[in-house]
Structures are given as C-alpha cells and as structure tokens.
Write a structure and sequence with these properties.
The chain is an alpha/beta fold and about 400 residues long. It folds into two domains: about 170 residues, Flavin prenyltransferase-like (Rossmann fold, 3-Layer(aba) Sandwich), CATH 3.40.50; about 210 residues, CoaB-like (Rossmann fold), CATH 3.40.50. The protein has 13 helices and 23 strands. It has an eight-stranded mixed beta sheet, sandwiched between helices. A five-stranded parallel beta sheet has the order 2-1-5-6-7, sandwiched between helices. A two-stranded antiparallel ribbon has the order 3-4.
Length: about 400
C-alpha cells in the first residue's frame, strides 16, 4: 500500500484524465499524501475543485497566482514519487526537451524523486517516430514508463495508447517504486505452456496448453512483490510482462535445463507447464517421407521437472505443482503431491465444464502436504491465479 507516501500527481490535457480522478481518490483512500498539479490544458478535462476535494490538498496549476509564487523546487523535493498520468504527447515532448512553460514542467525539472509516466494518446500518435524517440529519451533518464493498454480509444478507433487503469498504476507504484508486497525479496520460478518434442524438422508432439494459467500466476506473484522468472513453452499467447524475466523454450529437455539452473536460487517454484511426458528417441534431421503403409515412432520418457526439483528441494523452498485429472481426481492429486515431494498441488478436473486447456476460466482444488484441501468456484484464470498465490502466502509466508 502507498500508505504514508508523498505523491505528486501531474495531470496533462488528455481525455484519460478522468481516470486519474479515481486514481487520486484511491491513493488517498490507501493512505498516501497526494498533491495534484494540472497543466493549463488539463483544466479543460477535469475540475480543480473535484481534485482538491479528493486529494484534500489545494490543486496547483500556475507558476504564480495572487497568493504568490509556487515553490516548484520545494514541491519537487517534497515528493517520494512524481507521477504524470495521463502523459500527453505534448507534455512528453516538452519533458524530453527540458522545456519549462508551466508548473508541472518546472516541478518535473526540479524533482529529485523517481519519475513515473503513464502515457495516453491515440494509436497513430503513439506509433509516431517522434513519440518513440521522446519516450526512449525519457526512459534513458531513468524514468519509469507504465505500458499503455490496447482497446477503445477516444477517437473511436481501437488500438494501442490507452492509459493504464488506476489499479494497474497503483500496483506499478507498489511494485517498482515502493517495493512492497508480502513476497518482497522472494524469487519465484514459474513454468507455463506446452512443450514441443520434434519428430523431424517439420513435425512435433505437442498439446493444447495455452500457457494462460502459468502466465497469470507469474503476473500475480510479481504483483505481490516477488521477482519472477517465467520459463515459457511455445504457447501462442502473446505476452508482455514488464519486469518478469521470460525464458522461451521449446522442448521438455530445454525446460528442465532452465529450471534446474534457476531453482536452487529460487524461494518458490510453480510448475504449471503441460510438459510432454514422452519425446521421440530419435529426431530425424530430414523430413520423413510417407513411403510405407504404417509407421511408428519410438518414444522415451522425459524428465519429470516437478519431481526432480522436489528431490533437491530445501526446507525453505515452496514447490507447487498441478494435476490435470479425469478420474479418481482427489486420490491422484494426493498421490502426485507425495510422489513429487511438492508442498501444494492444484487439481483441475477435466470433468468440470469450466476447467481445462485454452479456456479463460478454471476450477481448482488446492491440496496441502498436511492433508488439507481448499476447493474454489469456477473463476477467470486471473482470479484463480490470485487464489493460488493467496493460499501460498497464507500457508507459507503469513
Ligand atoms: N510435470 C513436469 N515435468 C514433466 C511432467 C509433468 O514438471 N515431465 C509437472 C507438471 O507441470 C505438473 C505436474 O507435473 O505440475 C503434473 O503433471 P501431470 O502430467 O498431470 O502428471 P504426471 O506425473 O505426468 O502423471 P500422469 O500423466 O500419469 O497423470
């Protein structure tokens, strides 16, 4: 929580400014001390009275007024963080050039605290080479840039350029600036997605895993303060998890190697990948031609990554695995927990209509080593990830 933190929220002239009204209210609710600075253009989008009421502080706008000169240097030094949300194209360009024709820019130039920027603009402006260059320049100053979202834009078009949502901005501040969260200082290793075992240069043995569940868990662990490494199989899911170290692998052997290297330095291991249990004994180096009427491939077992990490697991490490079952679900899940020396097993039953590969929902039961079980309702994979990480924190880090 940003409790007790001093935050300057700079608002520029963009329609996304309405979201910053909610952001200010939430920051204050969570105990932050907030001072709002508006650029002249921002006053057309949001009212100083609303923001003064919500922030419980006078809203600042001009370099001076009848009361006197606004001390921008002291304001810049007062703050623990200077957040500009939304950051318009115009203010971005001025910041990149060091221009100083309003109070927001003067405070920016004299701020000694971290600067966080949440841009907002139409997609064509966002993609323009001058925007790219200005953003790169601001990044090179060490400023943090919160990624824009994709979706409906004020122009009526759809695309990239939406300002991050208030909750995402608060999460970002908590994670990267205030470095808070129950898993702060912990390292987590997560596997996700399928593996592809090559038969020849054009064919492979794979499965339908999308990687969504593991990716959602990686994101959730990071939200709670952990530094996360994600070992991701060849899932089609296009992801961008800022701050998560993502290692792309193809085969079970590559996934095993990546995990074996990283698990000793990890506090938490979450094995959510649907790893192929078998791989071809030989991979043909040329495409196999259809010469004979029947054809078989010799397969050998892959290394069970969860089991092998379980064998070397130290007492201060927590290991979580998944069990995807169709029959005798509970018994099989408990058996896997023991056999693989995991601390927690998350059961997905394929009998549940809301669970399984490629879906956006999942229904799980979590089993613990001391015989407890926690069933959950069908939920979105993001909510399921939050339930899993909550349970892990409650049982191992509370
Ligand atoms: N797993 C793994 N490495 C493998 C196979 C599975 O790390 N080579 C992990 C999965 O990521 C998951 C758990 O083991 O966390 C359970 O996988 P599952 O395939 O359901 O279990 P198996 O032990 O392979 O048993 P079976 O296929 O007989 O159900």
């Amino acid at each position: 929580m940003p409790q007790g933190k001093k935050i300057i929220v700079g608002i520029t002239g963009s329609i996304a400014a309405y979201k910053t009204v909610f952001l200010v209210r939430e920051l204050v609710k969570q105990g932050a001390e907030v001072k709002v600075i508006l650029t002249p253009a921002a006053r057309d989008f949001v009212s100083p009275l609303t923001l003064a009421t919500l922030s419980r502080n006078p809203v600042l706008s001009g370099l001076f007024d009848e009361q006197g000169w606004s001390n921008h240097v002291m304001l810049g030094r007062w703050a623990d963080v200077f957040l500009v949300a939304p950051l318009s194209c115009n203010t971005m360009a001025k910041m990149a050039q060091g221009a100083c024709d309003n109070l927001l820019l003067a405070v920016y130039l004299s701020a000694t605290c971290p600067v966080v920027l949440a841009p907002a603009m139409d997609e064509d402006m966002w993609q323009h080479p001058s925007t790219r260059a200005n953003l790169a320049r601001l990044g090179s100053f060490g400023h943090k840039i919160i990624p824009v979202g994709s979706g409906d834009l004020a122009s009526g078009l759809t695309g990239e350029g939406r300002m991050a949502e208030p909750a995402q901005i608060i999460d970002y501040l908590r994670q990267y600036i205030f470095k808070q969260g129950p898993l702060q200082g912990k390292k987590a290793l997560v596997t996700a997605g399928p593996t592809y075992e090559p038969i020849d240069p054009v064919r492979f043995i794979g499965n339908h895993s999308s990687g969504k569940m593991g990716i959602a868990i990686a994101e959730e662990l990071q939200r709670r303060g952990a530094s996360v490494t994600l070992v991701l199989g060849p899932s089609g899911t296009d992801i961008l998890l800022p701050g998560v170290e993502t290692i792309r692998v193809q085969t079970a052997a590559e996934m095993y190697k990546a995990c074996q290297e990283r698990f000793p330095a990890s506090d938490i291991g979450v094995m959510a990948a649907a790893v192929a249990d078998y791989t071809p004994v030989v991979t043909a180096d040329r495409k196999i031609k259809k010469t004979v009427g029947s054809f078989s491939i010799d397969l050998k077992k892959t290394t069970d990554i969860l089991k092998s990490l379980g064998e070397t697991k130290r007492d201060n490490q927590v290991l979580l695995g998944f069990a995807l079952e169709t029959d005798n679900e509970k018994m099989n899940a408990r058996e896997k927990l023991e056999k693989k020396n995991a601390d927690l097993i998350v059961l997905n039953s394929l009998k549940d209509p809301g669970a399984g590969f490629g879906k956006d929902t999942n229904k799980i039961t979590i089993f613990t080593r001391d015989g407890r079980e926690f069933p959950f309702e069908t939920k979105s994979k993001k909510e399921v990830a939050a339930d899993i990480v909550d349970t892990l924190i409650r049982l191992h880090y509370a």
